[in-house]
């Protein structure tokens, strides 16, 4: 059985090969920088982060008079780690009773899977969990969450064709009454229009605040690591509408290019609490900048 780190490395291997092969026996010249720029752009790092990484690298090469391509690669690795380090943050538990988390993301991003994995993670940290089936738009989402809850002894509050904000409101009240530690509110990923979706999510957030002052304590966006630069557009849109407190990036075991984390760090540095590296419960791992960059730049 593969370790999650191996799956992460495999997932990022294409980008990793593109980047690391550039340095093998390379001369440190403009050609190398140009190829590096292309490889970074191809990895979804985006223009801003790419130019930043190149500028910093050139500076260090000059200052430290680096001539060996392996040393230059190491320098890039360290610059990359420093860029991603601010995204590293652990989910703080026990500060609110209950802690209310709103989980958003477009359909297919891995939202339901992540909620299940997160619930397990929280239980392992001695937190009782209640789930609110706030995606009332898609019956399948509600069922998926309910089945998952039954299998794992987690209460799921669900209403057939109910108002998602009402489900969230009831869930928070129920958690308060039962002394539950964490409420996770699942939300819809798609409605007839994007504008609709944002309005519904904002409404859920307002109503959650009414049910408990200071809530939601976490507003988390789940994004598919394979969506490329569009992931950044999602982060911006959801952050503008809801004020995100954290991200979960899924499917980094697939064919993700990985550079999207650099783009996020440079343009919307929102903490990445976890990364998804597979479909199983244990495949949700806290984000660690060094581990990630090691997987990317070996
Ligand atoms: P939702 O529509 O956002 O709720 O997405 P789902 O949770 O239903 O996930 C969509 C698909 O992605 C499912 O087949 C999941 O098993 C899969 N998935 C979710 N997270 C990961 C991950 O980290 N790695 C892999 N390989 N698959 C994942």
From TrEMBL:
Membrane topology: Peripheral membrane protein
Residue positions binding GTP: 105-112, 186-190, 250-253
Function: Involved in targeting and insertion of nascent membrane proteins into the cytoplasmic membrane. Acts as a receptor for the complex formed by the signal recognition particle (SRP) and the ribosome-nascent chain (RNC). Interaction with SRP-RNC leads to the transfer of the RNC complex to the Sec translocase for insertion into the membrane, the hydrolysis of GTP by both Ffh and FtsY, and the dissociation of the SRP-FtsY complex into the individual components.
Enzyme Commission code(s) on record: 3.6.5.4
Membrane-crossing segments per the record: none
Name of this chain's protein: Signal recognition particle receptor FtsY
Annotated family: Belongs to the GTP-binding SRP family. FtsY subfamily.
GO CC aspect terms: cytoplasm; plasma membrane
Keyword Cytoplasm: yes
Domain SRP54-type proteins GTP-binding: 271-284
Key words of the record: Cell membrane, Cytoplasm, GTP-binding, Hydrolase, Membrane, Nucleotide-binding, Receptor
Reaction(s) the record says it catalyses: GTP + H2O = GDP + phosphate + H(+)
Organism expressing this protein natively: Solimicrobium silvestre
Record GO biological process: SRP-dependent cotranslational protein targeting to membrane
Compartments it resides in: Cell membrane; Cytoplasm
GO molecular function, one term: GTPase activity
Main location: membrane
Enzymatic class: hydrolase
Subunit architecture: Part of the signal recognition particle protein translocation system, which is composed of SRP and FtsY. SRP is a ribonucleoprotein composed of Ffh and a 4.5S RNA molecule.
